[in-house]
């Protein structure tokens, strides 16, 4: 028995040795022993800590997902109605590699305008993408593949995942000034200097509206100047539009930066997401578009599809159907417009309430930026230590950069939040 076992071990070891060495044979758990735990995502880490907190007073203003005035997740009525039309009526076949043609067409109308000459002339290469993140990543991979020596200029600060996306696509990153900590507004002069000083033909990542995390957007006039300078320098503008409709409550108005660039004849790129404005977070539905000549648009689209093919083959169907049904049905579209406005208005109302409540407590600091900033986030100016204080003493959770997701503020918690902010800032 013993000798047949040792013979078996010897034979296996000889096989293992021929296949790559003893260590592998002997160890049953050594394939991934060199893997270190990844750093926690700063935003998702906040949710984990919030969920573990047992306090009945706890408040989560960390995550950028809309909540109603009771703090509950929302499914829009237009989405439920579109789902009603899908249920039992449509098959579950694969979409084409570029996704739903109808969804893409409707997305382009939303971003570029119904009457856009570019889309009418088929000069926009566009594919369905895995929400805004997937659209950015597809573009970053495309940029690396076809302009391997190019770089991307990213605003400081920005949504943290932008850095990860272009890093994993191996596109070198540069930064440009954006936010002015003293005024808690736009550092327009420094931004323009960076645009002027970048090498001609540079790639810039711009937030189309409701900049995350600062809530600070250029004015219309400033966008015009930015667009002009991009023309002079022949820069490429890549717009990340994750919040169309969430800034002003009107998707047309929120597309104004893109429309200004188009009027000026720029050939832009654009990432669209339906996570926030339709509440389709987990459905992962978005669109990537790149403007080109009619002939080149065909080539660009085919290459975008080629990048998608070995990654996920083709995008998911359900969310795409919801979006295309809502945007192509006049009744559902007007319901959607009403509902987006409702979400934006609730957030705007909470900005006013938060500011008023802090001021009422006698704070001698300025809180004007709460109502000046736009969209889902308020870049409060709270220091990392004050954020820790809020978490430890008041069970209020936000990212350590002081970003408050206004979507998590409600009539029920705004007074408590204001009071806590006043307490941690009153001695500064
Ligand atoms: C600026 C910005 N871009 C893109 C996204 C991507 O979101 P999603 O992939 O869920 O569409 C987000 C989400 O928070 C964002 O804030």
From TrEMBL:
What's this protein's name? Aspartate aminotransferase
| Annotated organism of origin | Apostasia shenzhenica
Would you tell me the Gene Ontology cellular component terms? mitochondrion
Q: Does the keyword Transferase apply?
A: yes
**What's the top EC group for this one?**
transferase
Any single GO BP term: amino acid metabolic process
By its UniProt entry, which Gene3D superfamilies does this protein fall under?
Answer: Aspartate Aminotransferase, domain 1, Type I PLP-dependent aspartate aminotransferase-like (Major domain)
Q: Which PANTHER family match?
A: ASPARTATE AMINOTRANSFERASE (PTHR11879), ASPARTATE AMINOTRANSFERASE, MITOCHONDRIAL (PTHR11879:SF54)
Q: What is the lineage of its organism?
A: Eukaryota, Viridiplantae, Streptophyta, Embryophyta, Tracheophyta
Question: Which keywords are on file for this protein?
Answer: Aminotransferase, Pyridoxal phosphate, Transferase
- Per the record, the gene is ASP1
């Amino acid at each position: 028995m013993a000798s047949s076992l040792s013979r078996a071990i010897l034979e296996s070891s000889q096989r293992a040795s021929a296949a790559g060495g003893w260590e592998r044979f002997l160890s049953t758990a050594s394939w991934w022993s060199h893997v270190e735990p990844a750093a926690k995502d700063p935003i998702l880490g906040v949710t984990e800590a919030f969920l573990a907190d047992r306090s009945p007073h706890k408040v989560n203003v960390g995550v950028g997902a809309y909540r109603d005035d009771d703090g509950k997740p929302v499914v829009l009525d237009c989405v439920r109605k579109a789902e009603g039309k899908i249920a039992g009526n449509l098959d579950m076949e694969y979409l084409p590699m570029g996704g739903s043609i109808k969804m893409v067409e409707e997305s382009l109308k939303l971003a570029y305008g119904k009457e856009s000459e570019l889309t009418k002339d088929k000069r926009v290469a566009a594919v369905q993408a895995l929400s805004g993140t997937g659209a950015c990543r597809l573009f970053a991979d495309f940029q690396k593949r076809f302009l391997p020596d190019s770089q991307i200029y990213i605003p400081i600060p920005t949504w943290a995942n932008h850095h990860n996306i272009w890093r994993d696509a191996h596109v070198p990153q540069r930064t440009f000034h954006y936010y002015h900590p003293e005024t808690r507004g736009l550092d327009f002069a420094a931004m323009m200097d960076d645009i002027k000083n970048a090498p001609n033909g540079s790639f810039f990542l711009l937030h189309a509206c409701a900049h995350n995390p600062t809530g600070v957007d250029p004015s219309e006039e400033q966008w015009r100047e930015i667009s002009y300078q991009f023309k002079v320098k022949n820069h490429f503008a890549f717009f990340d539009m994750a919040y169309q409709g969430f800034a002003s409550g009107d998707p047309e108005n929120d597309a104004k930066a893109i429309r200004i660039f188009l009027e000026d004849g720029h050939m832009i790129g654009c990432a669209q997401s339906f996570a926030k404005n339709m509440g389709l977070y987990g459905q992962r539905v978005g669109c990537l578009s790149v403007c080109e000549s009619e002939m080149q648009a065909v080539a660009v689209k085919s290459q975008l599809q080629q990048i998608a093919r070995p990654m996920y083959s083709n995008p998911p169907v359900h969310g795409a159907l919801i979006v295309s049904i809502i945007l192509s049905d006049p009744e559902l579209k007007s319901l959607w417009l009403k509902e987006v406005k409702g979400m934006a208005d609730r957030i705007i109302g909470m900005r006013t309430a938060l500011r008023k409540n802090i001021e009422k407590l006698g704070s001698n600091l300025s809180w004007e930026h709460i109502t000046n900033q736009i969209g889902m986030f308020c870049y409060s100016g709270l220091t990392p230590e004050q954020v820790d204080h809020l978490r430890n003493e008041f069970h209020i959770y936000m990212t350590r950069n002081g970003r408050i997701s206004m979507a998590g503020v409600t009539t029920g918690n705004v007074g408590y939040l204001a009071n806590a902010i006043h307490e941690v800032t009153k001695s500064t």
